[in-house]
């Protein structure tokens, strides 16, 4: 049985590692940029005065080249917004979240690079928050901007104990746009201002996508789940 705290993408830097097979996720992050920039504009203009500090959280940051994609866009948008309006930039705190088994060593190095290359003239502080975002991670009213990409389809459910094959279960769900809207409305914490559905491969060179690359990309995502579930069975009959 796989614990919800132990799910992660395939680690390392090999051919089938997540770090080398996350172009689809990168393309989806790129499509989110205008939405993040609009959210930053709304945030910065929602108060009478420019906020003195902004706390940004990314839920399900994973690792590799995409780990800082969303927060980097937000930091740049804040800096650009203030520069165009000749306003003092707020202090920024970036918090990256994922499950404890995520490769946070590489994430920490990326955060150092983010601080060193930040376009912001104000302080940029960073932190890591390990844990499931299906449970409480932050104190009340402590976040200004929450981002997430390619993460919310992972469910918090575990496995039903049956025979190993019958019990194998990938804890993810891809809701329709209507179903997603209802889930958000029923939960009540957020209000949808705009919902846009994208074709999965939009913005990518489809001619370069081969069956081998697809298989490797799937391996990068699901191999750790498969290995963890079936390893006890392999040891039993070894």
From TrEMBL:
Top-level division of the source organism's lineage: Eukaryota
InterPro entries: MeTrfase_7, SAM-dependent_MTases_sf
Pfam families: Methyltransf_7
Gene3D superfamilies per record: Vaccinia Virus protein VP39 (3.40.50.150)
Residue intervals passing through the bilayer: none
Sample GO molecular function, one term: methyltransferase activity
Record-stated family: Belongs to the methyltransferase superfamily. Type-7 methyltransferase family. SABATH subfamily.
Listed name of the protein: Uncharacterized protein
Lineage of the species this protein comes from: Eukaryota, Viridiplantae, Streptophyta, Embryophyta, Tracheophyta
């Amino acid at each position: 049985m796989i614990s919800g705290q132990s799910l992660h993408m395939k680690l390392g830097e090999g051919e089938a590692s997540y770090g080398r097979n996350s172009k689809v996720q990168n393309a989806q992050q790129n499509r989110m940029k205008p939405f993040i920039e609009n959210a930053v504009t709304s945030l910065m203009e929602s108060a009478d005065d420019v906020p003195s500090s902004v706390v940004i959280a990314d839920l399900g940051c994973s690792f590799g080249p995409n780990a800082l994609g969303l927060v980097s866009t937000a930091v740049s948008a804040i800096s650009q917004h203030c520069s165009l309006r000749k306003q003092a930039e707020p202090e920024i705190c970036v918090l990256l979240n994922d499950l404890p088994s995520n490769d946070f060593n590489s994430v920490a190095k990326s955060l150092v690079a983010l601080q060193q290359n930040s376009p912001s003239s104000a302080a940029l502080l960073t932190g890591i928050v390990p844990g499931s975002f299906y449970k409480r991670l932050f104190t009340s009213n402590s976040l200004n901007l929450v981002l997430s990409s390619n993460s919310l389809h992972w469910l918090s459910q575990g496995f039903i104990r049956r025979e190993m094959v019958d019990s194998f279960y990938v804890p993810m769900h891809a809701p329709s746009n209507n179903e997603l809207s209802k889930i958000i409305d029923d939960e009540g914490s957020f209000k949808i201002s705009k919902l846009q559905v994208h074709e999965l491969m939009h913005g990518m060179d489809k001619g370069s996508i081969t069956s081998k690359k697809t298989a490797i990309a799937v391996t990068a995502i699901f191999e750790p789940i498969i290995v963890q579930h079936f390893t006890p069975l392999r040891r039993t009959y070894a």
